[in-house]
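Page 47, continued from p. 46.
Same chain as before, 255 aa.
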Amino acid sequence: MKTTTKLFIGIIIYLNFCINSFGGETIRIAGEEWRPFSSKDLKYYGLMNRIITESFAIGNVKVEYDFFPGARALHFVKYGDWDATGGWTPSDERAKDYYFSETLFEEILVFFHLKANPFNWKTWNDLKGIEIGTVYKSYYGKEFEKAEKEGKLIIQKVPSDTLNFRKIIHKRIAIVPKNLDAGLDLLQTEFKPEERELITYHPLPLDKGPLVLMFSKKVAKNRKMLILFNQGLRQLKKNGRYDQLFKESRSGDYI
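Result:
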């Protein structure tokens, strides 16, 4: 019995040593410009990157960032030139080359509209006859795409959501589908306070899904880095810090 107990304690000590031995290490993150989650121009490099930094800090791991177009960031991490990249949808195809963290956050798409417009919806049929502003080549989820192909939606496509929001203000369209946090950031940075006050969003998501931090399978230390990151992320969520960071970002504190 004593031998078994000593062996068990020895294994625990060894595992803790293996994990903690990465304390003081540095991980290199290949980011992309995706406000308000990731940007070299934002405080803490944006909301997502602050979550990443603070999660790793709990395990005494420092983080270095650089920013690239999304496809290049994926390429660099896939081949081990950079260690990890954040804000991606996990898939079977990507699992061949990357380890996935626990969910960083859910990407939530909502409809923005004028406060003065009593917009409400529950099903796609409720959107019949409502003019919707979208952006060329943007993706709004399978259900939206299906409804559009079936001719259920009236769509006006433009080059940017800045233009879409201005069209809402001038009542040229009724609603705009957009990532919730990206929409709030756009209002904070591109519109006057009196214009921002005109626009709100409907709480029912038209699409949502998990986004993760992806670690290169080419980097030997990344199995342990994944463990450290997930431990830190869980702690942020448990102690309320995670929700506080979202609140700060949505209040414009990182601009």
